[in-house]
Predict the structure.
Amino acid sequence: MQNSVAYPESNRMLCELTSVQVTCEECGRSNSLGFEALQRATFSGVYSYELLVARLKCKVCPSTPRRWRRLRVRPEWRLDYTVE
Ligand SMILES: [Zn+2]
């Protein structure tokens, strides 16, 4: 996949995402945040990918401080941008 990103992914905006695949490395659950979930996050004040990742947590695992959460996050960026 050719995706030229000149700046860190963490600075990108949520509106650039089509979905986010989250896998919990503790229990193996995986879930996908689609357009609606991302839109809800935006409405609640989460605008960047970095903020989103910071707020992610597994629903079934006991809640642990952020830096000990073991979540694998795979963003799907919108690729429907063209330059004319
Ligand atoms: Zn879990």
Observations:
- Residues 1-6 have pLDDT under 50 and may be disordered.
- Residues 35-43 form the longest helix (9 residues).
